[in-house]
Amino acid sequence: MLKSQTRCQLANKRSLLWLMAASLVLYIFYRISQHGTPATHQGRELTGNKTGVSMTYASVIGEEVHIEQVTNATNVETPVPSKVYTLSEEEIIKESDTESNEKVSGLINNMSKDIVEDELRANNDSVLEDQPHILLLSSKGRSGSSFLGGLLNAQLGTFYFYEPLYELSQWHLNSNKNTVEGLSQIFYCNISSHLTRGAIASRYRTIIKNSYLDHCGGRDSCMKNLNAACRKQPIRVIKTIRTRVSWLTALLEDSSLNFKVIHLVRDPRATLLSQWKLGWKTSAGKSCKDIGEDLINGQILKDTYPGRYLAVRYEDICAEPNIMAKIIYSFLGHTNLPPTVVRYLHETTSGSIHGKPYSTIRNTQKIQQIWREKISHNQLLEIEEKCSDVIHSIGFNVFGTMENCRNLSMPLYANQSLVKYFTYQLETQESPR
User: Fold this and answer.
1) Are residues 123 and 103 part of one domain?
2) Pairwise CA distance, residues 229 & 344, whole Å
3) CB-based contacts of 122: which residues, under 8 Å, 6+ apart?
4) Where is the chain membrane-spanning (predicted)?
5) Model pLDDT, residue 164
6) Residue 222 neighbours by CB under 8 Å, 6+ apart
């Protein structure tokens, strides 16, 4: 009898253990369905609710966690740099549990382009056959190239390289030969030379703007499979401020390389003021000399390679972002703006992030001439003295005095009939104040 009771007790305990185990398994599956898989490191997916309309992803770089929230599966991606926080693994899970958390609420709600790609391909012409690759070149930094790069990256099927050759300038190797070799390798997705691979590997998480980073692992594995991942996308976009226009002839002579150049130019008074504010040691004379030479060489490229070079002014994009987006995408072969680009414009041209100099979120109309309210007397005189010819070439007025500069009724735009570098027609208007 005692043995029989013992057996019954053991059987009851086993049943209870099985019941507890089954309950635990069910709870784990429930938690995964609500909050994603447990956190992992090395840049892999940390959390993700793929069963609902909200997804949260995080990747770990050292002790920093990059968190991106993606919501509303009917929307399209807005490629905006992730916000950075330092969190523990427990905090990561907590962040993903609360959509209204203050640290996450400031992020733009995105949706992965991969999720909507098939649907959009079927419903519109946003993905063209034989699309050209794009080289976005700005003569100088702080010219709005990050914003325009995001606009170009917003189209489907892009693999975006953000300043891939930055390290060449740091290593004092930013020559015509090295730059052309690097750009060619990136466009062909054949990144093979030690110099180009090293430049990208050193800052790969900043340079590579693609969902490939979500699952490629650490630096070695990401670089190992980079060429294959790059080839999966029909369009490569390269944004650079470290390439001279005159260096592009060799690339344009390559008949098998289908790419177009978008050359972004900004009023040097705004550019230099922004650079000096960030502590850049920039010479006004040298800067404006480079801008002028790039405009002249761009005119040569436009005449020599019709349909492959377009110069645009940042101020025009600020004044009429939607019209300029249509002009740019028409240059790239689109008859209509892709829906993902429309969404990007909506999300990024009506807000502002104060104290974030590298943000792509901005009220473009307010930014267009804000420099006129901030530039000092000495700064204005120095820049206009050394850059008056370039300012006129771009199509703007030289103010001469602080009184004229501060007087916003004095127009920024000069007589546009005298400007030869910008081929599109745009009815320029002063920003409303």
Assistant:
1) no
2) 24
3) none
4) 16-33
5) 96
6) 43, 204, 208, 212, 213, 216
User: Are 236 and 226 a contacting pair, CB within 8 Å?
Assistant: no
Compute and round to an integer the Cα radius of gyration of the chain: 26
Report helix angle 268-277 to 377-394, nearest 10. Answer: 140
| 361 three-class SS | coil
Which residue in 212, 260, 204, 265 sits closest to 237, CA to CA?
A: 260
Q: Which domain holds residue 88?
A: 37-111
Position 354 in a domain: yes
Domain for residue 41, yes or no? yes
Q: What DSSP designation does 164 have? A: T
Looking at the structure, tell me whether residues 292 and 341 fall in a common domain: yes
With CA atoms as reference, report the closest residue to 309 among 108, 124, 113, 135: 135
- The number of distinct structural domains making up the chain is 2
Over range 96-108, report the average pLDDT: 29
- First-to-last alpha carbon distance for the chain, in angstroms, is 95
**Residue at a domain's end among 348, 367, 386:** 367
Across 288-292, 310-314, 408-412, 429-433, least confident range: 429-433
Q: Tell whether 28 is covered by a domain.
A: no
> Do 50 and 152 fall into the same domain?
no
Rounded to the nearest 5°, which phi and psi values hold at 399? -85, -35
Q: For a pLDDT cut of 90, what percent of the chain falls above it?
A: 57
pLDDT reading at 361 higher than 60: no
> How far is the C-alpha of 246 from the C-alpha of 297, rounded, in Å?
6
Rounded to 5°, the CA angle 44-46-50 comes to 110
At 205-262, the pLDDT tens digits run: 999 999 999 999 999 999 999 999 999 999 999 999 989 999 999 999 999 999 999 9
Q: Mind listing the pLDDT tens digit for each residue in 25-39?
A: 565 555 544 444 333
Eight-class DSSP state of 413: B
Residue 320 belongs to some domain of the structure: yes
Element (H, E) at 388: helix 377-394
